[in-house]
Specification:
This protein is of the alpha/beta class. The chain has three helices and four strands. The strands form two sheets. It has a two-stranded parallel sheet with strand order 1-2. Strands 3-4 form a two-stranded parallel sheet. The chain has two domains: about 50 residues, no CATH class; about 45 residues, no CATH class. Helix 2 links the parallel strand 1 and strand 2. Helix 1 crosses helix 2. It is globular, with a radius of gyration of 18 Å.
C-alpha cells in the first residue's frame, strides 16, 4: 500500500519470495561473521549481490556463477560462449559440474 504523499521510486532489482528468503539468509550470514560467501548457479544471486553492493540490503560479499556448466551444456564452442555470457552478465566464478548429480547416480549420460 502506498500512502497518499509518499514518494515511490522504481526498484532496479527483481523482488520475489526467493529474493526475500535469500536476503534473510544473507543477513544471518553476515551477523554470524562471514564477510564473503559463494552461491554457485542461482540466477537470483546476481540481483541480490547487486542489492548488497548498492547498500540496499545487508549481507556479505556474494560471489556467484549465475549459471552452471554441466555434462549436457554442449560442445566446447558452446561452453566458451557460456563462459563469455556469464562474464558479461557479471558472474564472479565459473561453476563446472564434471558429472551428473548424485540424484542421477553421479554418472554422465554416456556412462549409463
Amino acid at each position: 500500500m502506498v500512502r497518499k504523499n509518499s514518494v515511490r521510486t522504481a526498484c532496479p532489482w527483481r523482488i520475489t519470495n526467493s529474493t526475500l528468503y535469500e536476503a534473510g539468509n544473507l543477513q544471518a550470514t553476515i551477523e554470524a561473521g562471514f564477510t564473503t560467501v559463494q552461491s554457485l548457479g542461482a540466477a537470483i544471486d546476481k540481483d541480490v549481490g547487486d542489492a548488497i553492493n548498492a547498500g540496499a540490503i545487508p549481507g556479505p560479499r556474494l560471489l556467484t556463477s549465475i549459471h552452471q556448466i554441466t555434462e549436457k551444456s554442449g560442445a566446447p564452442a558452446k561452453l566458451r560462449e557460456m563462459v563469455r555470457q556469464t562474464k558479461a552478465e557479471g558472474g564472479d566464478v565459473i561453476k563446472i559440474f564434471a558429472t551428473a548429480s548424485i540424484r542421477d547416480w553421479g554418472q554422465a549420460d554416456h556412462d549409463r
